[in-house]
Model the fold of this input.
Amino acid sequence: MGKILLTSRRLAQYIVHMQREQALLTELGRHLRSAREAAGLTLSGLARKADVARRTLTEAEAGRANLTILKLARLSHALRVPLARLCDLSVGAVQAERVALVGLRGAGKSSVGRALALELEVPFVELDERVERLAGMTLAELFDLRGASTYRRLEREALEAVLAEGGRQVIAAGGSIVQDEDTFARLREACRTVWLRATPEEHLTRVVAQGDPRPMAGRPRAMDELREILADREPSYAPCDATVETSGRDARAVTAEVAAWFGR
Done:
């Protein structure tokens, strides 16, 4: 019997697919249990009325059974609720479990991301840190020694590895992730994305305040270049699910806005 080999991307896609299916079954189970309790029926009583095995109904309410449409129809009839009500499920349940913050360096992704993860009680992941682990060197060394193409490849691998971990997460993506259309599309497919937007002046001030003088070193047109980069990338950031302004605001205020949008 031959072996089936899955790439990290395909494995992550499979895991996300399975998580989405499980989320739907879990939500269906909640709908069934709520309708049964509202009707004043026991598991055994509903099973008899709908001509469904009690074990099947128990598994369905626990989110472990994938019922056929005919069984769902019998259950809706027995419960006297529309079939559409039982099947009114959120297909984006898994995507809603993850938030990805995007934006240029200095937008506040790290500070807001850590605070948001703490607020939502979920893990926080710096995607560029994962890239550094894969490369075995800092980002500066990676770009100097192996170039942007290697960084892009490792960024894709890092993202797939993070998504394969499953569960709820707050992810801070690299500032240039929008330059790789496939990777950015993958991020938006698997996460609810928030563009943290700031003025060019704010971006540069924050980066320098972090102790990194490189943006200004030997570059008299640094601010003009930054404005050009922001203008060039704005259409790429625009498809994000939400945009939050961070200029003139502290991380706490921005975090509160993102958390409120997330439904916390």
User: Anything to note?
Assistant: The chain has two domains: 8-86, 95-262.
